[in-house]
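in:
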């Protein structure tokens, strides 16, 4: 597994994690990284892990992820012919729809001023920052409910 951005909290670092079996072919000098482990990057990553692994912070993130999923499941229940499923874990969720994800991304951006990204042909990625508030999560769900009726209608017309 490769890691980068989140590991350094914005400071450039890269890492590759592997099982002993997977790493068997990685001999010294055979694998490199532009932002691999130098002492400063290692210290930054260690500080980031200390913060991110803090139990109260993790509990708050779990709460926010559960709230986001609950609200998106509610949204999905309103448009069963348009939203196939809500998938993912925590604050890394995807909305699988019957329309191409790029159409969903564009509609949310243009009509609701919400930024999402396509994660495949028909999955729209929902990936808020860890500092997202409950109020912002609720606002996101409200904006989806403003945009999705017209998309649901369009999806029904195509079937």
């Amino acid at each position: 597994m490769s890691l980068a951005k989140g590991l350094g909290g914005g400071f450039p670092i890269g890492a590759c994690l592997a099982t002993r079996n997977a790493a068997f072919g990685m001999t010294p000098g055979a694998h490199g990284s532009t932002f691999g482990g130098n002492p400063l990057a290692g210290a930054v990553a260690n500080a980031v892990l200390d913060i991110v692994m803090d139990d109260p912070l993790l509990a708050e993130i779990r709460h926010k992820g559960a709230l986001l999923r609950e609200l998106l499941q509610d949204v999905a229940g309103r448009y069963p012919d348009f939203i196939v499923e809500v998938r993912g874990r925590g604050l890394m969720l995807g909305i699988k729809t019957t329309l191409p994800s790029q159409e969903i991304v564009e509609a949310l951006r243009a009509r609701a001023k919400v930024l999402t990204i396509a994660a495949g042909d028909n999955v729209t990625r929902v990936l808020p920052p860890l500092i997202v508030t409950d109020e912002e999560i609720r606002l996101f769900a409200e904006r989806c409910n403003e945009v999705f009726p017209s998309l649901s209608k369009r999806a029904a017309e195509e079937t």
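note: The longest helix spans residues 134-158.
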